[in-house]
Amino acid sequence: MQPSEKAHSIQFLEDQLQDVITLLAKQQLEQSLVQRGPAVNHELVEAMLKNQHQARLQEKFSLMHPADIGFILESLPLAQRKTAWDVIKTLHDGQVLLEVSDAVRQTLILGMEAEELAIVAGKLNADEIADLAADLPKRTMLKILRSLNSKKRKHLNAILSCQDNQIGALMDFGMITIRDDLNLKAIIAYIRKLGKLPSHTDKLFVVDQYDKMQGILPLQRLLTHPPSQQVADVMVTDFIRFQIDQDAAEAARAFERYNLISAPVVDSDDKLQGRLCVDNILDFIREKTDEDLLIQAGVGEEEDLFSSVWKSARNRWGWLLINIVTAFASTRIIGVFEDIILQLVALASLMPIIAAMGGNTGNQTSMLIIRSLALGYINPSNISHLIKKELTLGLINGSFIGVILGLLSFLLYRDIALSIVMGSAMFINLLVAVLVGLGIPLMRYKWGKDPAVGTSVILTAITDSMGFFIFLGLASLFLIK
Amino acid sequence: MQPSEKAHSIQFLEDQLQDVITLLAKQQLEQSLVQRGPAVNHELVEAMLKNQHQARLQEKFSLMHPADIGFILESLPLAQRKTAWDVIKTLHDGQVLLEVSDAVRQTLILGMEAEELAIVAGKLNADEIADLAADLPKRTMLKILRSLNSKKRKHLNAILSCQDNQIGALMDFGMITIRDDLNLKAIIAYIRKLGKLPSHTDKLFVVDQYDKMQGILPLQRLLTHPPSQQVADVMVTDFIRFQIDQDAAEAARAFERYNLISAPVVDSDDKLQGRLCVDNILDFIREKTDEDLLIQAGVGEEEDLFSSVWKSARNRWGWLLINIVTAFASTRIIGVFEDIILQLVALASLMPIIAAMGGNTGNQTSMLIIRSLALGYINPSNISHLIKKELTLGLINGSFIGVILGLLSFLLYRDIALSIVMGSAMFINLLVAVLVGLGIPLMRYKWGKDPAVGTSVILTAITDSMGFFIFLGLASLFLIK
Fold first, then answer.
1. Residue where one domain finishes, among candidates A229, A262, A296
2. ipTM score over 0.90, yes or no
């Protein structure tokens, strides 16, 4: 359905949300009034009132775009979300399930019968069912698979057999294929007979009888060339196609670079398998970057704002437990130097600075490397240049910050030897930080792992413990008699 | 120009890059050989060799898509980038300048004369010139403005008068406008006469004589309805339009939700001002999320991988200096408690754990809030629910982690009183962390500031100092006689 004209404004959506909440609250209030009132015709009145509000809610939601309903469900606390969902789960043929985040989708699916789910999913396209597949119970999935026709089942299997990071996982099947021996007039007649084009159709795919890609026919060419011309003469033969098992991130970069709207996906025999559209690429980029941000902050995965407290807690404990381990490990180094601290207690308040500054500098370096790796800017021909630059930067930053910290600690403690140890330790730990900030993401990338995952935790653990070790070690060598 | 078929693979691009580097190296080698050889005809030979390699480079680049050239320039160290740019700066009419990052663009523009820049910019569209405007010297910009025709100048001024975060800053002017009293046949004839459509044309805009929006005519309808029908009968009148001064992030969310390809941008009188396309939205989302990631890691702005060391250093010093200040400030609290540490030195190695765990938990909370604010999921109706949930989570996490840390420190020091102080301090600091992690982004958002900026630094400063204060304060109350 067409999104309503005003719906794109966040203010409008918030007003809608307010309305929904008011309706939900009224329904609950009146139910409780009925329950507290005389028991005469209790069930009848309740059912009547409930029906009345359900009808109003249903009417409201039926006028809304599935994506807007999704937005409202995301913003509703669990209990209200459940009430609202009960009213609308059969509206829009399951489209709403596609528009919410994974975390919210799980809360919605939990409240549905296997039978209901199978009916809803049956109305979706193969690529849409594939989006839901991970969240559906296995039994429901089997039921759905059995109910599909063979073409749809083949499409669904094609997507499900791809890994999440492969292009095949993002493709859909809304492509229009034509033969190259027709003329444009026949093509236009064919489209007119179809009555509508799949969304994001900016080009038709020209294939031979074995489904091998021959070329693409942009709608623009269809519209601007004389109708009597043959497809073969008008089609573009040098075009971008993607391999079904290629890395999805590579496709995302290609869509950004060449401003694509849709592109064919082929197998190793150049046979057309599906199509990739910019809307799925947009979702992919949003998900990937959100994931990177959350990982950076130590949150396991996308979280439903209103998930139960226990679920959220479990999602965050993973990193927190790792942090406890690394924090204890790095501070054990302080334990070794307790005698030194007793002799010069100023060390206790200076040492966290060395550790913290190391972590900060290391994170700067590693984030730039992670981002450049993601954009594909780092390769064997420039890597040595890059390492040299970051090391030089580490030397400069180390000297600069080392001198500043040396001066500041002299102002505090009026102890030249202590200030020199402070400055030198800072200098050395910043070099360590740069080396680690370069090393971890590059190593992880080389070994085929996501360079973003875990880098920050490992880096901080190393810069913390090295910071304590270098500072207290230098102090024990040069400050303590 | 059409991107080449193979160009979307990163392997292909890396091979291209290798070739370019080899050519550049040959050129330099032969130049130095000539310089070291006998001085006979020195300049002539050098010029000949240089020309030969330049021609080969130029040929290579002229076959490449501007975006691919941009990729190669991003991956080339400064000196090589400059040599390559000298060869190709007039190719592709300035398109390459649009395809590189801001940081790299500055290095390219630095090497060009004002005259050259004006000529190149003159060939671009108004929205493309606007993209360059921030990086062009003022004098050059004036020269360009004078050379434009009045329509292009009006367009350019319309974009430049918008702020970076407004929709107007992202619009282009490649829209095709039609009147509603024509029939579809006339529109098709008109398009055929135009000979080509601007990229991303999925709909035509129907306006009246005052340029007021009447409706949109999707190409799909143009292709599937009988040619004899009037535009007025076929056009869609309930469609999404954006206000020129609306928040660009809102447009991005609408493009994601409704899978738009293009949409009209209007002023407050509903007059058509320009159009918004998904390619610009994609760039906007990429830039915004990259910025968030870099800010999170304390890097000022997007950085050219190969910028001079001094420039990179300046870009990173801002946050590092702020970090020095906050690190010193929070550790001053330790200084106050030095006597306590002397009496119980175990405190010195336990206190960094309290501080670090507080920072980690606070960052988890704040990142989820920042992300939910960015997606528009938080609003007055659910905020109290959300705060309650995060506080409950803080209580649970605090008890859980408090107990673990208490146990671990008992294992290390066999001191029950110390373990209880450790656990309690952790519990209190985790509550502080949740409050601060909630408070800072919500406050900044309420005051109309970007909730992502600076949150992590302020949060860590508070959880560090509060961590030290709570732990050492409790220790001085309960552990020291």
1. A296
2. no
